[in-house]
Amino acid sequence: MDHQITIDHAHTNKLLLxxxxxxLVDGLSYSLxxxxxxxxxxxxxxxxKKFLLxxxxxxxxxxxxxxxxxxxxxxxxxxxxxxxxxxxxxxxxDEEVNVIRGLDCGGDDYITKPFKLGELCSRIRAxxxxxxxSKESEASRLCRGDITIDLLASRxxxxxxxxxxxxxxxKLLCLLVRNADRTVTREVIxxxxxxxxxxxxxxxxxxxxxxxxxxKIESDPSHPxxxxxxxxxxxxxxxxxx
Length: 242
Hints:
It comes from Hominibacterium faecale. Keywords: DNA-binding, Phosphoprotein, Transcription, Transcription regulation. One of its GO terms (cellular component) is cytosol. GO terms for molecular function: phosphorelay response regulator activity; transcription cis-regulatory region binding. InterPro entries: CheY-like_superfamily, OmpR/PhoB-type_DNA-bd, Sig_transdc_resp-reg_C-effctor, Sig_transdc_resp-reg_receiver, WalR-like, WH-like_DNA-bd_sf. The chain is about 40% helix and about 20% strand. The chain is an alpha/beta fold. It has a 5-stranded parallel sheet with strand order 2-1-3-6-7, with helices on both faces. The chain has a 4-stranded antiparallel sheet with strand order 8-9-10-11. It has a 3-stranded antiparallel sheet with strand order 12-14-13. Helix 2 packs parallel to helix 3 and helix 6 crosses helix 8 (about 205-215). The longest helix has 23 residues, at about 115-140. The radius of gyration is 25 Å and the shape is elongated. The two termini are about 30 Å apart. Residues about 1-10 have low confidence and may be disordered.
């Protein structure tokens, strides 16, 4: 299985530069490092793939014309493996067909040689900011099968339709969905949802909440597909689509 590329803003932003023109590489690599970026350099498609298999990058800078192919191939390779790392194409070919192909295959931006380093760094930082905001947006939502929970708005949607939930029902749903396909014990539910507020809740009360939640979520509450009882232990949110 190929290594997944992730974006981690806790470290210096790491870039992969795929460029075979050494007259450009030396100066560009030096300038990027001087601007606070950590840079790995590949000269061919094969070298780039090896870097991608063994390293994690925050952004890719891809030349289009290479000795063993084109930067489009690396872009398609990365996107084909589900990686959404930002990609900027570096090209001396400013023909419209190349720009369109670069964007169509998953590129985020392009810059035509010769370019000013300040402009390139600005483009890089803009894409890194956008990627960071996208990650934060993803972290504010829980998506499990039919259910989407918007944590910022404190609301849940079933197949895109908002659910009318009480505060306790919403908290219970969040706890179960966060732990999808794992059994959440009654004790954990009591501790997480009610004990902290000083309210005593017994098994019967919890059963009532579970039943009410099923009535709002399940197609057939008597034969639930999502909110399952694990006898003797607790409850489990089953991640299925119906």
